[in-house]
């Protein structure tokens, strides 16, 4: 495309397929405000354009997600364990399926379309290549920014329980390949995270072999689940550098406690805290209900009434929408 801007001055702008363009031969990346980007593009830019650790608290419902957003986290993680516990009241034993996970992720991802991007657990992809493809497509349509898919058998369990079994590497790579082909076919920026749970069954070297193979197929990020030591975690970063790795930090789980500062120094790029909301929720709810049982009251602190909780969940945004549209629902306040 050639544009005349003055009698003796011409500027030639060439637009390329990848979104970059050239002005008089100088290649320029389009400048787009971060808050206007879809979650997937936002997460991909955070990985590409910064060196900071992307810290994602694990959230499992709308309230936990709203609290994390209120505190200003730059990304969120929808935990499969938390989704299974909150929606089904069951242990993380592969009982939550695509419908449970996708609908929960869609709700969380769309609480604030301009808010922090959401990474979501996709377990094993819920079946063969066709189901993996369907799962990826539904996550993309739901507004999920990134997902991890693993190599456990379909009858899977939480990554921090004993007795895990994984499929052979060929089947695992079929899942990764199906996911990559689907996101490419749909021209999506969604971040594909290849996870392996092979450490218990096959050892460290097999984990690295699987992650390298997934990287060759185009996975964007790697996740080795269940490190047994900090030294092993550092070794994985070194062995797979410069490929970005995600660290799943589960306190009182199978591995050592690693702080965000330590993970940053090790070279991890993303850190998820799967039980960051679920464990404190259990403690807080149990303590309140125990007091109700023994003392006859819940003991909610002063100032934490219904209005305050509703404000965390977007009450004032709802009031603004109604009022600006000419509604009278909140004429007398709330």
TrEMBL record:
One of its GO terms (molecular function) is methylisocitrate lyase activity. It comes from the Eukaryota. It catalyses: (2S,3R)-3-hydroxybutane-1,2,3-tricarboxylate = pyruvate + succinate. Pfam families: PEP_mutase (PF13714). InterPro entries: ICL/PEPM (IPR039556), Isocitrate_lyase_ph_CS (IPR018523), Pyrv/PenolPyrv_kinase-like_dom (IPR015813), Pyrv_kinase-like_dom_sf (IPR040442). Keywords: Pyruvate. PROSITE patterns: ISOCITRATE_LYASE (PS00161). Belongs to the isocitrate lyase/PEP mutase superfamily. This is Putative carboxyphosphonoenolpyruvate phosphonomutase.
